[in-house]
Amino acid sequence: ETGVTQSPTHLIKTRGQQVTLRCSSQSGHNTVSWYQQALGQGPQFIFQYYREEENGRGNFPPRFSGLQFPNYSSELNVNALELDDSALYLCASSNGQEVYGYTFGSGTRLTVV
Amino acid sequence: GENVEQHPSTLSVQEGDSAVIKCTYSDSASNYFPWYKQELGKGPQLIIDIRSNVGEKKDQRIAVTLNKTAKHFSLHITETQPEDSAVYFCAASKNYGQNFVFGPGTRLSVLP
């Protein structure tokens, strides 16, 4: 089985620009969550999608938005980038059953200059 | 909302010794507690988890204990090896499938 893959691995953007990050869930997983991990800190929950619907959101502004597609892949979009958005963005997928847990991708390192 | 604290922030042990990392949580409604290991340049990897109806769980050299009354849980690694060196995160969730609140992490170094 394939794991969670994220693209791109690294990205540099200018303040004010928009960015789209992509995630392919592990095979059979219908739930995807996105996390932001600032340097030296634990991941912070952005939002979660289940069967193409957002079903949970953390304390992030509306300029952070997402999509989940019928094949359960997902996108994270960030508008009007700010310097503080520089972080590792992690995608995690699950099949919704406790025994398997969430599988994280390796993340996209976003740098805003 | 939920707040998870984690101690220590850094931990150095000699190879073969045990390592213990402790976490506390604030929301008594939390009922699922995973532990993740993150190596440099990689995403977090689930190493063990525990639900609130269980007090202890063990998987080979790794064990987790949970004290619901005190609202704290701990990760125990025995017979540490250099490949155990990584950053470890604890997390809490009110319901499996909902968002996790992560602790700030513990950088474990196992010295040969």
Q: Can you walk me through this structure?
A:
Chain A is mostly beta strands. Chain A contains no helices and eleven strands. In chain A, the strands form two sheets. In chain A, strands 2, 4, 5, 6, 9, 10 and 11 form a seven-stranded mixed sheet that branches. A four-stranded antiparallel sheet of chain A has the order 1-3-8-7, with no helix packed on it. The mean pLDDT of chain A is 92. Chain B is built from no helices and eleven strands. Chain B is 0% helix and 54% strand. Chain B starts with a strand and ends with a strand. With 112 residues, chain B is mainly β. In chain B, strands 2, 4, 5, 9, 10 and 11 form a six-stranded mixed sheet that branches. Chain B has a five-stranded antiparallel sheet with strand order 1-3-8-7-6, with no helix packed on it. Chain B is globular. The A-B interface holds A 4, 31, 33, 40-45, 48, 50, 56, 58, 90, 92, 94, 96, 98, 101-107 and B 4, 6, 32, 34, 36, 41-46, 49, 51, 89, 91, 96-105.
For the sheet with most strands of chain B, the description reads:
6 strands, mixed
Tell me the β content of chain A: over 45%
Strand-and-helix sequence of chain A, N→C? EEEEEEEEEEE
Helix proportion range of chain A: under 10%
* Helix/strand/pairing category of chain B: mainly beta
> How many individual β-strands of chain A?
11
Counting DSSP H or I runs of 4 or more residues, the number of helices of chain B is 0
Largest sheet of chain A: 7 strands, mixed
Note the run of SSEs of chain B as H and E: EEEEEEEEEEE
Give me the count of strands of chain B: 11
Poorly predicted spans of chain B: none
SSE blueprint and pairings:
The complex is a heterodimer of chains A (113) and B (112).
Chain A: E1 5-7, E2 10-13, E3 19-24, E4 31-37, E5 44-50, E6 53-57, E7 64-68, E8 74-78, E9 87-94, E10 103-104, E11 108-112
Parallel strand pairs in A: 2-11
Antiparallel strand pairs in A: 1-3, 3-8, 4-5, 4-9, 5-6, 7-8, 9-10, 9-11
Chain B: E1 4-7, E2 10-14, E3 19-25, E4 32-38, E5 45-51, E6 56-59, E7 62-67, E8 72-77, E9 86-92, E10 101-102, E11 106-111
